[in-house]
Design brief:
Helices cover 24% and strands 29% of the residues. It is globular, with a radius of gyration of 21 Å. The protein contains eight helices and 20 strands. The strands form five sheets. It has an eight-stranded mixed β-sheet, with helices on both faces. Bound molecules: zinc ion.
């Protein structure tokens, strides 16, 4: 028998799928913003996998994957429990905006950061209702989840891939123990990513990662604060999800369940999309950047392997006449994750999302001043 898990109005029931609501926040109009909760539990005991999606309103691939994945047939074969929340940001999904209109900040930068709570500062806006809701939900996650995957979409036309967050550890106290724990966690996370079987791209190195508040994403909070093996999935185009990508993500997710001992059988093939492995670890970067206002005509496709010096775009003026030698070249070895949207670029804008060679460590200490009061 699996452990009974309750989230909001939903309580797991062995061999079934249960549906209900978790109350997130109250609107001033008296409406309650609830998050939909699905708990699928097998008859045999096993781990608890959390699947979350829909934190960015225009990204509809993740919810679609959850609806495809969770079936009675899955439950009949399942050991353990799947807790799925397909809409972490219902307001954003309603308006197809990244940020909810009632708390206009990127919602995937609001999760707990592991720092001690500060006393309220009357000159600063207190945490939004949504941030407070995620704090409560995080406590539920840490109490129940053994693993977590959070589903997103990157850009129109981008490849399907998974982001690997670096595991940061406290070096200001008990550094050796914290480092060993971080290495063990990163190893589990790496196995889980390999089991998922899609292209893997490492997140930014530590300094830029914290500057971008990516350590406060859903999967980063699970990983870094909750110590739960976790990663973020990006499923290509968000506003018009690609059925092949959704299908391949469901297959990858079942492969993670096989790795975790929740399903039997050999891994399923990841079909209908490109899995890119340049033979070296890669991280994300927006590159190359144009140095003058111009029109960009891309020469490479998402998934293409690129070497430093290869032309990746033609650059011209608004009449279509070449500027300089008419070509923009890659500065790095790697591959194309996706093209930046549009063809009209201002100076400094990056024309591609690329995966470039990554030499930064996957396990690294938090910056020295991270846990100090600021
Ligand atoms: Zn997203």
């Amino acid at each position: 028998m699996s452990k009974t898990i309750t989230l909001g109005t939903v309580t797991s029931k062995s061999g079934t799928i249960q549906y209900g609501r978790w109350e997130a926040l109250s609107h001033p109009t008296g409406h309650i913003e609830f998050l939909p909760v699905i708990i699928a539990q097998g008859k045999a005991d096993g781990p608890c996998l959390w699947l979350t999606a829909g934190i960015h309103g225009p990204e509809h691939g993740g919810p679609a994957m959850i609806y495809k994945l969770i079936t009675q047939d899955l439950v009949d074969r399942l050991r353990g429990t799947v807790v799925a929340i397909p809409a972490l940001n219902p307001a954003g999904l309603r308006t197809m905006k990244r940020e909810p209109y009632h708390a206009p900040k990127d919602p995937n930068r609001l999760w707990p950061d592991g720092k001690p709570e500060k006393p309220p500062d009357p000159d600063k806006e207190p945490p939004s209702s949504l941030e407070r809701a995620y704090k409560r939900l995080f406590e539920e996650m840490v109490a129940n989840a053994d693993y977590l995957i959070d589903y997103h979409n990157a850009w129109t036309g981008s490849i399907s891939f998974a982001f690997r967050d670096r595991v940061m550890y406290r070096a200001d106290q008990d550094a050796d123990r914290h480092k060993a724990e971080a290495e063990a966690l990163a190893a589990r996370q790496g196995e889980m990513l390999c089991a998922y079987g899609h292209t893997i791209v490492n997140e930014f190195p530590v300094e830029k990662y914290i500057e971008e508040k990516l350590h406060r994403s859903t999967s980063a909070a699970a990983l870094l604060v909750g110590k739960i093996p976790a990663f973020t999935v990006e499923l290509g185009t968000g506003e018009v999800p690609d059925p092949a990508t959704v299908t391949a993500s469901a297959a990858g997710t079942r492969n993670v369940m096989r790795w975790a001992g929740m399903l039997d059988g050999d891994p399923e093939p990841i079909e209908g999309l490109q899995v890119v492995d340049p033979g070296f670890p890669v991280r994300r970067r927006g590159t190359p950047r144009v140095n003058e206002a111009c029109v960009v005509l891309h020469l490479v496709e998402p998934g293409d392997l690129v070497n430093a010096g290869d032309p990746v775009a033609k650059v011209c003026d608004v009449w279509g006449r070449p500027l300089s030698d008419g070509l923009l070249r890659s500065e790095y070895d790697g591959f194309v994750i996706g093209r930046s949207h549009g063809i009209y670029f201002y100076p400094g804008h990056a024309v591609l999302g690329m995966a470039i060679r990554d030499d930064a460590p996957l396990v690294a200490p938090y910056p020295e001043d991270y846990f100090k009061e600021k």
